[in-house]
Design brief:
homodimer; alpha/beta; 34% strand
C-alpha cells in the first residue's frame, strides 16, 4: 500500500534497527482517514472471503479493526491484556512481548468468539508473531476458524510472518519492512 | 439516543446498583454499526462546534473516538495508561479508578495536543469523572481548549456529570442512567 509506505517513510521515527515509532498517525495519535483507507485495502485483499467477526488485541489494534468492521459490516472483538473482575468465563492465551521482554495473558469472554465463526485477525504490527498466535489460539480453542490475518506493518526481518504463512495462514501485510537503516526504511517489493 | 437506550435495556448485564456490563456491544465485543450511529449523534449534537482534535483514553474510548474522528475528519489522540519506553516528552495526569480502587497516571506525548487545539473529549462512560478530568488537565496543561465532552453512557446517580457541567464544560451524554434496579435500567428523560 503505497500511501502507507509514504507515511512511514515521512513520519516514522527510527529508534533502532528493529524498532520504529509510528505514534504520530497509527498507535497514539490516529489519522482516521488513513485508517479508513487501510480498512478498504483489507476489504479488497480479502474480497474472496466472508468473515463473521474480526478479532484484535487492545489497544493499537482497535482503531483499524473497528473501521474494517464498519466497512465489512461485522462485529469486532478485542482481546484484553488484563482480566476484568466482571469476566468470569473466558478463553485465554499466553503471549510474549519481545519489546517489553515479558509474558502476559490475553483474555476473551466466552461466547464472543464461537464455533463456526470465520475470523479475520487484524493488528498494527507483526514481528515475532506472538500476539497473533495468541489470538489464533483463542479462536481455535472454541472451534472458530482463522480465515485471514490483516497486518498494517510487518517486520519482514523477523520471523512472525514466515511462521504464520508456513502454518498455512493467509497473511496480508500492507507494508513489509525488510530493513531499518539509520535514515531509511527499506520495504519489500 | 433511543437506539442506545434500547440496546442497554436489552443487552446490558446488571452487576450491582452502580455497575452494568456492556461488553457485548461496547467495550469488548464492539458493534461498529452502532458506533457509527453514536458518532453521527455526536456530530449532530456538536454541529455548532469546530473541533481540531478528539482526545480519549485507552482502551474502550478508542472505538467511538476513531469513528467520530472519521465522521468529523479530524485526528484522534488516545491517552495511554502506561508510559511506553519510547515516550520521552509527555503530558501526564493522575486518575483514580473507583471500579478498581486505585490511582494511575495517563500519558500523552508532547506535541500531539497543542496550544490552540479545540478539543472534543470522547469516552464510553462518565461516572465520577476522574478519567475525564485527567484528559481535561492534559489538554489545558498545554493551552488547548476543551470545547466539548461526548459521553456514551453517563451514570447520572454519580457526580461526574454535575461537576463537569458546574465547571462550565459542555457535556453531551447519549444515555443518562438515573437508577440501576435489579432487572431494569432507568434513564433520565
Amino acid at each position: 500500500m503505497e500511501l502507507l509506505k509514504q507515511r512511514l517513510q515521512d513520519e516514522a521515527i527510527i529508534i533502532s534497527d528493529s524498532i520504529i515509532k509510528v505514534d504520530s498517525f497509527l498507535n497514539h495519535k490516529i489519522d482516521p482517514l488513513l485508517m479508513e483507507k487501510i480498512a478498504l485495502e483489507f476489504c479488497t485483499r480479502f474480497a474472496d472471503k466472508s468473515f463473521t467477526k474480526i478479532l484484535t488485541i487492545e489497544a493499537s489494534g482497535i482503531a483499524p479493526a473497528v473501521i474494517t468492521g464498519l466497512k465489512m459490516g461485522i462485529p469486532v472483538v478485542f482481546a484484553k491484556k488484563a482480566k476484568p473482575s466482571t469476566m468470569t468465563e473466558f478463553l485465554t492465551a499466553r503471549v510474549h512481548s519481545f519489546t517489553k521482554d515479558k509474558d502476559y495473558n490475553i483474555y476473551v469472554s466466552e461466547g464472543f468468539i464461537v464455533k463456526g465463526d470465520r475470523i479475520l485477525i487484524i493488528d498494527d504490527f507483526l514481528a515475532h508473531g506472538s500476539a497473533t498466535r495468541g489470538l489464533i489460539s483463542i479462536a481455535e480453542q472454541c472451534g472458530a476458524k482463522v480465515e485471514g490475518i490483516g497486518i498494517i506493518i510487518e517486520k519482514g526481518f523477523q520471523n512472525g510472518g514466515s511462521i504464520l504463512r508456513g502454518l498455512g495462514y493467509r497473511v496480508e501485510s500492507l507494508a513489509i519492512i525488510d530493513k531499518i537503516l539509520q535514515n531509511e526504511i527499506r520495504f519489500r517489493e
